[in-house]
């Protein structure tokens, strides 16, 4: 890919596009997304072993994503005929149906829009990219995996849940955070807020220092479908 191409970054609007998918002859991304979160991921090629394990694991957990108001969307630069044959093969050989659409991006237009082709790896095949896109169509997280290492679906679920929890509660989440664990309170921005923060010690905050405070959230606020 030419170095002059501007790749999407966290905080950018997710590029809109219209493409052929396994569920639509002309799917317009923004219309299909609606008011849901989206996990948009690419795989190097159809009928490849690591990709097969990824797609089937996403499929097995599709309802888990739906429960947090998140749609799955896959892509590779294969034809729609290849996609359909592969989906049928996974159903026959592994007993798994793929419930989410797969973009057939044989002309690489969508892959180029999202920076899914890395020239140092391949001139045509997409890397294992993951874009987490919120309901306002803003890119909130980007994860890249190399072709020879399958992605961690647990982490994809965790990232979406963490983002939703942070949005709903005006907080941040610490390293390795899981629903039910304490969240991080934003640090103070002015001098008077430092003493106010320290005054919470022993009350509703777990105060390590003025800049590092944790708090528990009610169970109903651990993640959100908003």
SSE layout and pairings?
Blueprint: E1 18-21, E2 24-28, H1 29-33, E3 37-42, H2 49-60, H3 62-67, E4 70-76, H4 80-94, E5 102-104, H5 109-113, E6 128-133, E7 139-145, H6 153-169, E8 183-185, H7 191-198, E9 206-209, E10 212-215
Parallel strand pairs: 3-4, 4-5
Antiparallel strand pairs: 1-2, 3-6, 6-7, 8-10, 9-10
In short:
The protein is an alpha+beta fold. It is built from 7 helices and 10 strands. It folds into 2 domains: 18-151, Glutaredoxin (3-Layer(aba) Sandwich); 170-221, Antioxidant, Horf6, Chain A, domain2 (Antioxidant, Horf6, Chain A, domain 2, 2-Layer Sandwich).
The whole-number mean of residue pLDDT values reads 91
The radius of gyration computed from the alpha-carbon positions, rounded to a whole number of angstroms, is 20 Å
Can you name the CATH architecture of the largest domain? Answer: 3-Layer(aba) Sandwich
Which outline best applies? elongated
CATH topology of the largest domain, by name, is Glutaredoxin
CATH superfamily of the largest domain: Glutaredoxin
Distance between the termini: 36 Å
Low-confidence parts, pLDDT < 50 over ≥5 residues? Answer: none
Oligomer: single chain
Treating each run of at least 4 consecutive H or I residues as one helix, how many helices? 7
**How do the strands of the widest beta sheet line up side by side?**
5-4-3-6-7
The main β sheet shows up as: 5 strands, mixed
Our estimate of the beta-strand percent is: 15-25%
CATH domain class name of the largest domain: Alpha Beta
- Helicity level: 25-40%
């Amino acid at each position: 890919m030419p170095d002059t191409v501007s790749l999407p970054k966290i905080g950018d609007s997710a590029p809109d596009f219209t493409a052929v998918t396994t569920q639509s002859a002309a799917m317009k991304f923004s219309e299909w997304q609606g008011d849901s979160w989206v996990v948009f991921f690419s795989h190097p090629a159809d009928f490849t072993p690591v990709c097969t394990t990824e797609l089937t694991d996403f499929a097995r957990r599709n309802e888990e994503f739906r429960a947090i108001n998140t749609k799955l969307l896959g892509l590779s630069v294969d034809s729609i005929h290849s996609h359909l044959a592969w989906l049928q093969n996974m159903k026959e050989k592994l007993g798994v149906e793929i419930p989410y659409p797969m973009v057939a991006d044989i002309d690489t237009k969508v892959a180029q829009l999202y920076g899914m082709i890395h020239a140092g790896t391949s001139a045509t095949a997409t890397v294992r990219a993951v874009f987490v896109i919120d309901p306002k169509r803003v890119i909130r997280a980007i994860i890249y995996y190399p072709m020879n290492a399958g992605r961690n679906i647990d982490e994809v679920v965790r990232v979406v849940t963490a983002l939703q929890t942070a949005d709903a509660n005006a907080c941040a989440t610490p390293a390795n955070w899981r629903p039910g664990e304490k969240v991080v309170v934003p640090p103070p921005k002015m001098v008077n807020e430092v003493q106010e923060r320290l005054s919470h010690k022993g009350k509703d905050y777990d105060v390590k220092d003025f800049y590092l405070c944790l708090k528990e959230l009610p169970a109903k606020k651990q993640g959100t479908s908003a």
